[in-house]
Amino acid sequence: MRVLKLLADTDHGLTVTELSHKLGVNRTVVYRLLATLEQHALVRRDLGGRARVGLGVLRLGRQVHPLVREAAMPALRSLAEDIGATAHLTLVDGAEALAVAVVEPSWTDYHVAYRAGFRHPLERGAAGKAILSARQPRAEDPGYTLTHGELEAGACGAAAPLLGVTGVEGSVGVVMLAEVVPERVGTRVMDAAREVAEALR
Q1: Among candidates 178, 173, 141, which has minimal Cα distance to 158?
Q2: I need a surface site. Which of 26, 53, 169, 189 has the fewest CB within 10 A?
Q3: What is the pTM for the complete model shown?
Q4: 85-136 pLDDT per residue, tens
Q5: Integer Cα distance of 124 and 107 in angstroms
Q6: Which residues contact residue 106 at a Cβ distance below 8 angstroms, ignoring those fewer than 6 apart?
Q7: Domain 1-53 falls under CATH 1.10.10.10
């Protein structure tokens, strides 16, 4: 696991010698560890002999969404009931935002139907824009993003990025039918995003 974590934290891969130093074990042990990981396609070595994360981690990664969804559900339920709007957890998938968990409020007469599996460009909608804001934080950023009518006419969105969760890039937000997002919603989605981040750590 330490080998995979070290390799995941570098873009250019690591040599056996570098891994040996970082792990504090001799090169023979590193060769054995890499050989085992290579058998499972979790590690590959390039022509220069540098070890990198292998494509096998993608197969493992497919199982991440259900675990993330499960961890996020209590905070999403609380957010949906408190605000009276559809709450969602959205993760990055390439250049798109992918809704992986959605909770609709139980007490409202109407609300926006928003389904898990819904995708949209990161540049449109509160969920995607909140994620992008975390990539390039600005001092004047309030910590949440508000949008109106970008994904659906008449619908407003508010979202806050997930912060401090290694390997997970996403946001928590709500979508509602309104002319303006009520003032307290921004702070509330930030609180929910913090709760989800803590559950994922």
Answers
A1: 173
A2: 26
A3: 0.72
A4: 999 999 988 889 999 999 999 999 888 888 888 999 999 999 999 999 999 8
A5: 29
A6: 80, 81
A7: yes
